[in-house]
Design a protein that fits this description.
- It is built from four helices and 25 strands.
- It has about 300 residues and is mostly beta strands.
- It folds into three domains: about 80 residues, Beta Complex (RNA Polymerase Alpha Subunit, Chain A, domain 2); about 90 residues, RNA Polymerase Alpha Subunit, Chain A, domain 2, CATH 2.170.120.40; about 90 residues, RNA Polymerase Alpha Subunit, Chain A, domain 2 (Beta Complex), CATH 2.170.120.30.
- The strands form six sheets. Strands 2, 5, 8, 11, 12, 15 and 16 form a seven-stranded mixed sheet that branches.
- The longest helix has 19 residues.
- The radius of gyration is 40 Å and the shape is elongated.
- The chain starts with 7 loop residues before the first helix and ends with a strand.
Amino acid sequence: MTWPFRHLGLKLLSVGLAVLLWMTVSGEETVERGLRVPLELQQVPAGLELGADVPTTVDVRVRGGSGVLSRVSAGDVVAVIDLRTARPGRRLFPLTPEQVRVPFGVEVVQVMPSAVAMAFEPSASRQVPVVPAVDGRPAPGYMVGAMSADPSTVEVIGPESAVKRASEAMTEPVSVAGARGTVSEDVTIGVLDPALRLKNPRPGKVTVQIVAAPHDRTLRNRPVHLRNLSDTLVAEATPTAVDVIIRGTREALTRVDPDDVVAYIDLAGLGAGEYTLTAHADTSEDAGVVRLEPSSVKVRIASAKR
């Protein structure tokens, strides 16, 4: 038989504390407070992707004792939507006070909005090329040449419509400022569209070739030669000379002899008359022709006197 007055002092102390706690709580003023809380999405079906317009927070009004609510922060309250019934298309999901998790002693009075619209699409993926990005300028006399990325392609995944629009993945910029030789750097690869993500994220490497920049050289007053003129005709060009601008490396341009650059007009098949014709130029293998100034020449063709 248990003696009812055993540990009587402890029992009386417990009763006293309980009464004190009840008096404290019952004496608190009941208040309401508005909170912006996170929206948690659960049970998203496999093979479906959420659109980008899903809210990340909702507003709730909670009620409770002033002391209890003073200790509640937005992180203590979470609204939850179960998406296991979602299907492709635009869907509306109700959001009630019962779907909001709150600490003990707090009551949810209202949730705003009372329903959340979400769009769902089938998930898709595809391979896209990785496009290297560079930042800065190489040393004077040098330019950016060929660029390569490893991996050269990555697989992106996301909503079907966004995947169809995807054309490339980007790397973080590689600095080539002041470079005179090849630059190689480990980089992060990503996509600009927030609806997309990499299926297998991993670091990449970008290699940038820095090459000697081409230079221009102007060869002035090069005579205009008239080619393929019929033996029964004579022709006269105006102007009779043009400037030829050639391009290449600094070393190559120094090797070009001006007499090796020939400006000409092709008169094949033309009879007597006046024409405005495009001028061309031949040059050595060390340089290429950029343009001629002027680019066209007036030519007067007449019958040869016998």
